[in-house]
Amino acid sequence: MNRTRISMIIALVLVCFVAALGCEKKGQKGKKKAKADKEWSLSSVFGCAKKPAKVRSVKELPNFTLLDPAGIAHSRDQLLKGGLVIVVTAPTLSQEKSQKGWSELLAAHKPKGASLVFLEDMSASSFKGMAKKEMKKEYKPGDPVILLLDEAGNLRGSLGVEKGKTAVLVYDKDGGHVYTDTGKPSTTGAQKIWGKLK
Residue 180 forms beta bridges with which residues? Predict the structure, then answer.
């Protein structure tokens, strides 16, 4: 085995070791909890096993009025008229895949009259300004997905969703909570979610 190959193997082992440390850090006791967004950590790049979001059961959707990236206000009562699906998430790289998956699948199966909202907890991102700038650039009012900015994470907290995670919550026309999905995006999952409003 030549030196070049040995060097490559050692480098690969070191990279895997550092990535493993990044994953392990989450479970260490007695240490400060790491920031929710792991955008630029090796553990994000190499894909540590992600645990589903912890969701505390909240029976009724709290009252709120939040702005979308275009500065348009959206209220609880407005959004509930045909039933509401809220994807509670955060603008971080670790949640990007879940956001994209749920956005495409839920929009594709969205029934007429129902509302689909992505609630972005801005407090979970270390790059809040950059994230908001990008959202304002990409967001188009009138699209099937309504993007709401939860600046301090207050609504996310009221809904009982763990910071820095993604969870899909379903509410009927009266604001009653009927279903939660914390799994990976899937066609079956999207159909089941919208089926809960029938």
Answer: 169
- Cβ neighbors of 77 (< 8 A, separation 6 or more) are none
pLDDT for 36: 38
pLDDT tens column, 161-191? 999 999 999 999 999 999 999 999 999 999 9
CATH code for the domain of 114: 3.40.30.10
76, 109, 155 from 66: Cα distances, Å: 9, 25, 9
Instruction: Report how far residue 106's alpha carbon sits from residue 109's, in angstroms, rounded to the nearest whole number.
Output: 5
Domain count, the chain: 2
For residue 119 the two structure tokens come to 């609630």
Average pLDDT for residues 23-49, to the nearest whole number? 40
DSSP H or E run through 3: helix 3-25
Statement to judge: residues 92 and 29 lie in one domain: no
Spatial distance between the Cα atoms of 66 and 45, rounded to a whole number of angstroms: 32
Give, for 179, the enclosing helix (H) or strand (E).
Answer: strand 177-181
Q: Which domain range does residue 9 map to?
A: 3-34
Query: Both 153 and 107 in a single domain?
Result: yes
Is residue 160 domain-shared with residue 85, that is, in the same domain?
yes
